[in-house]
Design brief:
By secondary structure, the chain is of the alpha+beta class. It has seven helices and eleven strands.
Length: 219
């Protein structure tokens, strides 16, 4: 079982509504939200956990407030009382959550201006050649496509930056994702964004389950 959920943050969320919703999330994330200066950063973290709790509650039948979320030694969140794995990613206006019975990773990135020549040094030689071979007007999209695939794999493993991006290679040639790792990938179409999911099983949902911000605010 693997499902992908998404929501759009509510940039008009009032301070009163935010204070109410902060009581639902973990103390760690609550402190993170309070430390952020930019409202959009606060909202992404807040809606990320709200989305996880909403989804897990719907699957498990538990109330959202009773769902326990812990972090392992690599700081990856997990559910100690529920046999499900999840992963969160957010960028721009979107927050995504992948849930599976096995390890899973998801990454979404807004396609923004980036110096592909500078950041491509994080990639393997084969990947750098792939990017350089793309038409100039498509290179930025190709960069984020490659980045999200690799990031989703690192997030599946849950080891963060302990796995350098240039230590493994993926190929996006001919529109197909191949990798030397024993994992499977799927990309999803979102206008202005690139999104990839990595899983240990080659079974992916065809569509994204969109949860409205108003549904999450009813928590």
């Amino acid at each position: 079982m693997l499902n992908l959920y998404g929501t759009v943050i509510d940039r008009n969320l009032s301070d009163t509504e935010m204070q109410k919703l902060l009581t639902v999330i973990t103390e760690e994330n609550r402190q993170r939200v309070l430390k952020f200066r930019r409202k959009e950063d606060k909202l992404r973290t807040l809606f990320g956990e709200l989305l996880v709790r909403y989804v897990i509650a719907g699957i498990s039948g538990m109330s959202m407030e009773k769902i326990i979320i812990c972090r392992d030694e690599m700081h990856k969140p997990y559910l100690p009382e529920i046999p499900l794995c999840f992963n969160i990613s957010h960028s721009g206006d979107y927050v995504f959550c992948a849930v599976s019975s096995q390890r899973v990773g998801v990454d979404i990135e807004e396609i923004t201006e980036v110096d592909t020549e500078t950041v491509s040094r994080f990639f393997t030689e084969e990947e750098q050649l792939f990017l350089k071979g793309q038409p100039e007007n498509e290179r930025k999209k190709a960069f984020f496509s490659l980045w999200t695939v690799k990031e989703s794999y690192v997030k599946l493993l849950g080891k963060g930056m302990y796995i350098p991006f240039d230590s493994f290679s993926v190929s996006l040639k001919s529109g197909e994702i191949t990798s030397e790792s024993h994992a499977y990938f799927k990309q999803y179409e979102i206008s202005g964004y690139e999104c990839a999911v990595c899983s240990e099983e080659n079974v992916f949902p065809k569509t994204i389950n969109i949860i409205s911000a108003s549904q999450l605010k009813l928590i």
